[in-house]
Amino acid sequence: MGKPVKRPEQSLSERAFLPEVAKGLTLTASRFFKNTFSSAEKGDIATVRYPEEQREYPERFRGVHRLTQRDDGSPRCVACLCCSTACPAQCIHIEPAEYGEGDPRQGYEKFPKVFVIDELRCIFCGMCVEACPCDAIRMDTGMHMPPALERDAFLLDKELLLSLPAADGSVKSANPRHEPGDKTHPGIDRDRSGH
Amino acid sequence: MEQEQASAAPQPIFTLDGREIPIEPGDSILKAAWRQGIEIPHYCWHPGLSVAANCRMCLVEIRSGRVMNLPILRKDEATGEFVPATKPKLAPACQTPATPGAEVYALSPEAKGAHHAVQELLLLNHPVDCPICDQAGECKLQDYWHDNQADLKRKLTEPVHKPKAVRFGETIVYDAERCIMCTRCIRFCTEVAKDPVLDMRERGNRNEVVLAPGRTLDHRYTLMTEHVCPVGALTSRDFRFKARVWFLKTAPSVCSGCATGCNTFADFDPRQGQVFRLRPRDNPEVNTFWMCDDGMLSYREVHEQRLLGPQQRSQTGVASIPIERLYTEPDVVLGEALATALKGDAPVALVANAALSTEDNTALLRLAKALGHTRVYLAGRPAWEGDDILRHADHNPNRAGVEAAAGELGITLTDAAELVSGGARFGGVLWLGTEHAVDVAALRQATSALWVLGTHLGDLAAAADLALPILSWAEQAGSYTNAKGIAQPFAAVIPPLAGQPSAAALLTLAGGVLADLNGAEPTPSASMRTSGVSGGAAEGQMEAAQ
User: Fold this and answer.
1) Where do the domains of chain A lie, and which CATH numbers do they carry?
2) Which of B104, B100, B25, B26 is nearest to B59 (CA)?
């Protein structure tokens, strides 16, 4: 019973064993020296010397989150909680608050009093960015989350998220935004209807 | 049963999309369908308000009777030519009476096309600011967009801008851009609240809801205008920006504000164990569709000024006791103190409370019966101003329930004010609840000891020798009997805030401890511990807490 396996033919040097050991060690040693003194940049080898050398990431790489800013430096986020609703890892915690008396946005717009992302829980799926209706949260920093020893270091708060720039250095988004009461608002209203 | 059916005239029916719908006298098509739980899309129609028929969302096709067909030009897709054709004249289902045998279609291509067109028109100038709108998630514009439009906006120009965040009063904010002019709020103020403070101004693009000159929205039912608003135009200043509705869960409850006992939905966030709002639950026998502002805002009492740990008063002042002692040394905290007072000469008074559930009060009344009392005092919140719409002058939800429970046990109820005015001197007073309408200083003069089993901080809890925390209506199931004598159960909404026991559990425990201290004779109170109303559940709760 059983399938007969044909044994490979072996030459004399292979059967002698030691010459083959020497051949293998020679190959290993030649690779060692080649890998030590060459680099991926020159195209000699396929691997990179991380972390000294890093591969270039694709343009749409999803890195650490950031919050985009308005012209006055305040967050574009309106605390709608769409991102934390969409988040499958439930890593986003937001507490909404209302703008103070005298602010033109007071009354009908809110802002995040607390905005915390737990980067340890985050699975970097990008659903929050997809869900955001205000282009307020982005993952275009091009950064990995830097390693740390404490868990608290992975809880990124609002101030830190707002200060992180995009990979191109900007802190805003390219999409323009009309603030309430802006003269840039076209359209008809009670004051401009001539009525 | 069969005889009844045979003798009664057959109920007239009409068909809606092939389904038979029975007709009550005076029904419109929409209302008859609504009774059967079938929703024809609508904005301005509300079962509790008059018919306005101005949103035109509920247009249906009626293919029976005298059908009117309108001549139109329809584009022939093959040739690109417009050719003469006819289409049926649609009728608003909210205003058209349901006639026996009528053949109505709300899902026909013509009707669906009308729903699509009306929906597109209503959203033409809508700001689509759902992210910052508190109606998002329970908005009819969103629901009907999904059901009837589900299409991109075709209008490319900037929408018309209107006043935003207009304060109508202390409770309501108005956003004219989101308003679809259904006039539900206006009709509510005029017809139900009997205070026509809202009206409409201008037409077309400049149409908006305005206040009567010199007025604010300040009657007692202002939050109902927000409740009837099908979109986010009117929002409650109390609820806005606090939570997103899709995170909230709902439990059926009963308002504890007055003796009307309006049925409510309590919306709470299960992640934080926090109640966020109350909404009226339809009950034609009690509150129909409505609630008053004070009732809607009474959810706040669940989280504000709560007594969350036992407090003991000594010569040095009021000190907190760890809540675990309620479970580890119950004889110290309640039973022994009560037993000592009972052994003295001066009488001990037990006080039931009309603001607490029948279950809590029954435990106290049973303890009273086990102790041989025939008289129990009845406390409650002081009366407030009622009206002839919903508010009852009795501020307590359960006076009738306590009276019925006392009657069953053969116990006489006396107003708690007589504790103070009667001139008698007491060895101790065991007060259920922290709601009261007496002078606390005079009460302390009339008794040597005061124990309070209550939910809230306040002058009574501060004056007590021992104040123990109990569960409020939001944390335990129970029932209230309203002024009409209808016993209404309510569900537990959130878990206990501080792991405190229910009043029934504490009183059952006290009864058991008293039995042990008095020589372990089998008294009714001892048996109550195992077979009482809530004894079993209460002990299970305590085991869990330990």
Assistant:
1) 66-163 (3.30.70.3270)
2) B104
pTM for the model stands at 0.84
pLDDT (tens digit per residue) in A122-159: 999 999 999 999 899 999 998 888 889 999 999 999 99
Question: Is pLDDT larger for residue A128 or for residue A51?
Answer: A128
pLDDT of res. B534? 38
Interface residue A24 vs chain B (CB under 8 A): no
Amino acid at residue number A3: K
User: In whole angstroms, what is the distance from residue B266 CA to residue B177 CA?
Assistant: 29
Contact predicate B434/B452, CB 8 Å? yes
> Do B405 and B365 form a contact (C-beta atoms < 8 A)?
yes
A104–chain B Cβ distance below 8 A for any pair: no
Question: ipTM for the complex?
Answer: 0.76
**Amino acid (1-letter code) at residue A104:** P
For B158, the closest of A82, A134, A186 (CB atoms) is A186
Residue A159: what are its φ and ψ, rounded to 5°?
-60, -45
Instruction: Give me the residue label for tokens 């009476």.
Output: B97
Tell me how far apart the alpha carbons of residues B511 and B451 are, in angstroms, rounded to a whole number. 15
pLDDT band at B532 (very low <50, low <70, confident <90, very high): very low
DSSP B412-450: EEEETHHHHHT---BSEEEEESS---S-HHHHHHHBS-E
What is the CB-side half-sphere exposure of residue B176 using CA atoms within 13 A? 24
Which contiguous run of DSSP H or E holds residue B443? helix B440-446
Inter-chain touch B164–A180, beta carbons under 8 Å: yes
Q: How does DSSP assign B282-295, residue by residue?
A: -BTTTTBT---HHH
Which of A108, A135, A185, A191 to mutate to probe the B interface, most B CBs <10 Å?
A108
Instruction: Spell out which residues of chain B touch residue A81, defining contact as CB-CB under 8 Å.
Output: 244, 247
Residues 6+ apart with CB under 8 A from B252: B263, B264, B265, B266, B281, B490, B491
